[in-house]
Amino acid sequence: MSSRLIGVGVGPGDPELVTVKGVNALRQADVVVVPVMEGGERGRAEATVLHYVPEEKIVRVVFALNERTDRARREAAWDAAGQRVAGLLRGHGAVAFATIGDPNVYSTFTYLAQTVAQLVPGTVVETVPGITAMQDLAARSGAVLTEGTEPLTLVPVTAGATVLKEALAGPGTVVAYKFGRQAHEVAEALRETGRIGGAVWGSALGLADESIRPAAELDDAPLPYLSTLIAPARRDGGRGGKL
Questions:
Q1: Which helix (H) or strand (E) holds 39?
Q2: Are 10 and 133 in contact (CB under 8 A)?
Q3: CA nearest 136: which of 50, 226, 11?
Q4: Fewer beta carbons below 10 Å: N end or C end of the chain?
Q5: What SS3 class is residue 118?
Q6: Rounded CA gap, 161 and 192, in Å?
Q7: In this structure, are residues 179 and 157 in contact, taking their beta carbons and an 8 Å threshold?
Q8: CB 5 within 8 A of CB 95
Q9: How many Å is the maximal CA-CA distance in the chain?
Q10: How far separated are the first and last CA of the chain, in Å rounded?
Q11: Which residues, other chains included, contact 115 with Cβ-Cβ below 8 Å and sequence gap of 6+?
């Protein structure tokens, strides 16, 4: 019988935002893998999982989550992580991998699943969706993501400020992920495109050091890497104006 690798989205950090299906998947798995950086510090995924499964069930696997420049080093870390998880799958029927947010949205799980599929042919890969940071920020800030026929554009600012500017120049709501190290460039892009009014950013959502602020207050100070921005669509047609 084939082993199962289950990517479980555990949300942006608030343990109450893990779905019932996600909790069941974590509890039913033989082991739960959580990604950690090379320094070994506990990440959000592990902290969230510990609310639902005992620590002895958790396997910490190092990923080069903070490696942005050395591709060879990053891929070597992915390969090593894949080998570790492949070994777990050879000895267990079901291995869950906990990832912040959703496993199909900018998640390390994507790379892991590709590697494991090559190392352990026949492995069944499944995912359990999770609440994303943009959904949580929208709920906590009151920002409406979409109305009527508005498009929604999600941009990782690690792709560069130019990509963000192009999105802001278009219609609909723009969400920016991972912009903490480029907060100044993001603020400039919002001002240049006339989108800073009503825009909001947040970090550490649902955690003790949560911060949710108007984008107009962005300055040159760096923010946490996993900061999220919502720049709502321009809405001047009244209620239902874009239906």
A1: none
A2: no
A3: 11
A4: N
A5: helix
A6: 12
A7: yes
A8: yes
A9: 59
A10: 50
A11: 78, 79, 81, 82, 85, 86
3-state helix, strand, coil in the chain (%, to 5): 35, 20, 40
Q: What is the pLDDT of residue 30?
A: 97
- Where the chain has pLDDT below 50, the residues are none
**pLDDT tens per residue, range 14-32:** 999 999 999 999 999 999 9
- CB count within 10 Å of CB 95 equals 23
Cβ atoms 125, 7 nearer than 8 A = yes
The contacts of residue 34 (CB under 8 Å, 6+ apart) are 43, 45, 46, 49, 58, 59, 60, 61, 97, 98
229 φ, ψ (degrees, to nearest 5): -120, 140
Nearest partner of 145 among 132, 129, 158, judged by Cα: 132
- DSSP annotation of 234 reads P
Q: What's 224's DSSP letter?
A: -
**pTM for the full model?**
0.91
Determine the pLDDT at residue 239.
Answer: 59
- What does R_g of the chain's alpha carbons equal in angstroms? 19
The predicted pLDDT at position 180 comes to: 84
Helix or strand or coil: residue 184? Answer: helix
Q: Pick from 181, 187, 193, 22: which is nearest to 97 by CA?
A: 22
Contacts of 207 (CB under 8 A, 6+ apart): 13, 14, 44
